[in-house]
Amino acid sequence: MGERTADYSLADFFFSDSSDPLVPPAEYVAWRKATAWATSLYEPRLRGPAGPRVRVERGGAVHSAINLSSYNYMAFAEDPQVIRAAQEALDRYGTGACGSPLLSGKTDLHARLEERLSAFMQRPATMLFNSGFGGAMGCLAGLLRKGDVAILDAKCHLCLIAGPNLARAKSVFFDHNDPKSLDEALAATAGKRRIVVVEGIYSMDGDMADLPALLEVAEKHGVGVMIDEAHSILACGAHGRGVTEHFGVEDRVALVFATFSKGFASVGGFVSGNADTIDYLRYYSHPYGFSCALPPSVVAGLLTALELATRDDERRNRLRENTAYFRKKLLDLGLNLGQSTTHVVPIVIGSDRQMLYELCHEMQEKGLFLAPVDYPSVPEDQLRYRAAVTAAHTKRDLDEAVAIIEDTIVRRLFPARAKAAQPAQPASTGTTIPTTTTTTTTTTTTIPTTAPLPGTAVAAGWRGKVDTLRQLSGAVADEVTGKARQVLGRIWKQ
Ligand SMILES: Cc1ncc(COP(=O)(O)O)c(C=O)c1O
Question: Cβ(136) to ligand 1 under 6 A?
């Protein structure tokens, strides 16, 4: 077992030896306290819209930063027309829907948005959800039953994994974007009721589903496909209908789900498909029928965003240009962007969790808001930052962001190159981060960049148990722990 607190992650505390489920594992509580400086990067408090520049609280003060962490892909977060539409609906319809859509929560605005989305998606029917996560989960839970099988791409978002679990259906994962692995999964589950589930753009990697190849396999087995276009709706395809449109395969995909939290810069989600399936889901997808409808003001904003995004290609083109511009600059710096081909741009730095958080603090100090993505959201050896390029960024925003990335990530990953390029600097002993700041005074703490994170004396946790188990019973334990880690690897995606 490693000595450093940085050797632990959320995966180590999933299983608890506390006898009371209401009491989290003591080791977790100690670990959280010990790593507070690192995890203070989570749940940052924004003091304004999630636009290309944000005002964000840090160390008790408010700082301005370039924002590469919000999914405001189509630049609607601060759009005056969207805001005005929402404000008008707030005046007219009040604060909330105050009921399930099935019983009392649906307004004419909800119905209009469903109709407009059906027309946009060129599918007979659409229903709205008040949550992207709940909607994706609810579609699968509404359609699958015990004994059925969901055949999921291994990189699917947690909400798509939660759906089959809720239905007590079986989940079988095929290797990411691998038609051969999909073929094997389908062959192994022949005779069952099945559905193949993929994402349009993968949320942690920024690559697209290889739909042409995967659809061929699914069709060979006669199994229908559901796609989650969360990160691709409005942004991809000639008209914004996502990756299915991008590949020209819309009529071969049975069910399209998408969220409103990304391209629409709002909240909720929708699913479009044939009329009978959507009608069935209204009654069997419980996150729909047993949960309050979206607030009318949100729906009004969504209607306007849809109208603006489909009126012309201006935003989509800006997003594509910005993405190409940013990607080239990062590739020129020698950074590892994984398989990304889209506006979701991971910057993979490897397995050094200590470095992940230190650099993140450094970037924030220099004015760049770029969130860390840690294991188990991504593999342990592929920790990363994930940049969300948007149509709202200017070239100046992106240039400044790249300069900060060069001055932090690149400098640390490629020290020799940084030294050759720059005049000698005094040796740095650490990173100074403000710990208690007000707008007038700043106290700072120096985090040594070479030493372990503070608070190394955290007890062994789950990983200690895994190690013991491994030593005890070799191959069997390997299989068990392998499975456990596979599960754990999926628990913290967002
Ligand atoms: C692929 C995918 N599906 C669904 C969701 C959940 O969406 P929401 O945040 O709108 O609940 C996300 C969230 O990031 C996602 O990446």
Answer: yes
